[in-house]
Structure formats: C-alpha cells, structure tokens
Amino acid sequence: MTMEWTRLKTTRLLLRALAIPALVAIAACNERGVVPPSLIGVIEPKPSPTSGMEDPPAPGTDVSGLYSGPAELAKYVAKFVDDARLQGRSVTSEMLGPKLQVRIASLDSYGSSVIGLCETSSSLRRVTFDPDFWNAVSETQRELLAHHEFGHCVLYRGHRSTVLSSGSFASVMYPTIMKSSTYLNNYDYYQDELFTYAAQEAAPEEDPARITVHVCDHQDLGMAEKEGEE
Question: What are phi and psi of 59, to 5 degrees?
C-alpha cells in the first residue's frame, strides 16, 4: 500500500509542478522524520506487552463542542480525550482556549513525505492530516497520527527522539509513525507515556504573532508496510 501511496503522491506533485510555473517553499520547522544518531539513546526498559489487544478501545465522549472540523474526525478527537481521562488527565480546557481545529488538507508545500501538521499560538490551535496518507492507511495508523499531532497541539509536547532497549520508539511522539503492531502490542505503555511523560512538555506560545509548527512524516511507515503492517 505504501508504494502505491508514494507513487500517487509523486504523480500529483509532478502534475502540479507542470501546471504552476513557480512554487513558493514554506519552511515549517527542523523537526523532520530523520533523527541524527546523536539524539538516539537507550535509556528505558522494554515495555510490557498488552495481552489480547487487537484494536484500540472505542471512544464514547461527545466532542462536538470541543473542536471545529469534519464530523468524520470526531472519533479521533474523542479517543484522545478518553485516553487522557483514563490516564487521570483532563484535556478539554486546553482544547477550548483557543479551540482546537482539525482538518484534512494537502501538506505538499511542506514536503512530499509530510503527513501531519500542528500549528499553535496564543490564538491558534490547528491540526492538519494529509489526505494522501489519511485515506490510504488503517484505523490504527490514523489513531497514531492523530494522537501524535494532538500531543503537539493539546499537550504541547515536542518530539521525543528516544528508542527503547528493544529498538522500539520510546513514544508516540517520536518524529515518525511507528508500526501498528508495536503500538498495539505495547498499548498500555504508550498510552501512559503519552499523557504522563512531562519532560518535553512546553508552555503555550504567548506571542499572538508567533506560530509554532510541528511536522510528522512517514519515514518509517514504508518499513512497517513491508513487514506486513496494515
């Protein structure tokens, strides 16, 4: 599926390049999917597997008043709110000041591999999912991307570029999306880490004119697909 998605993305970019004489490049930030070896440390034990976990729990919270965006994205917002509550954390107040915006829109201007974007300031809280990725992957991969971007935009977490002793990513907040099987087999660990690990949380941006941007790409997803991920 990844090769087909990559070909689709490349074809679309070529067609746009032919149709538009000049394109203006927009720089987001330097937090891309390729992590220098110097940033990777083995500092944590291997997480304990979660037995019997095949699919994440279904959300139950009504979030219609907590975000603006397509109704089809409500279940991903609700899942994030419910997961936070299970970890003893309420995130609803952060989502309303300013109100969370969630949308599906092209991120081609940030690069062909970018699949998710978070933009925050004192007057903005917006998450964007690239349609080429979003429409081609499983529900688990969608949840991973949504939790990652909400981690930026709601929890104000940065990327955590650490790996475990097992070689697995230490966090959903790793700059690239992990394999579905890694997430589901260690589901409890990743939920706990996402909502309780505070070392890389930051205060909201106070300057209304300054927008903080985080991007996420699919650098590792190709490997996951080759290994049989859905």
Answer: -75, 155
So where are the chain's domains?
A: 2-226
Contact 153, 202 (CB under 8 A): no
Residues of the chain with pLDDT under 50: 2, 11, 13-59, 200, 202-205, 208, 220-230
| H-type alpha helices, the chain | 2-19, 74-86, 92-96, 131-134, 139-153, 180-185, 187-196, 221-226
pLDDT at 3: 52
Give the tokens for residue 79.
């899942």
The sign of the CA dihedral 219, 222, 227, 228 is positive
Asked if 16 and 108 touch (Cβ cutoff 8 Å), the reply is yes
Distance CA 149, CA 108 (A): 17
What is 39-64 written as a DSSP string? G--B-SPPPPP-TT--SPPPP----T
Q: So what's the pLDDT on residue 219? A: 53
What predicted TM-score, i.e. pTM, was given to this entire model?
0.69
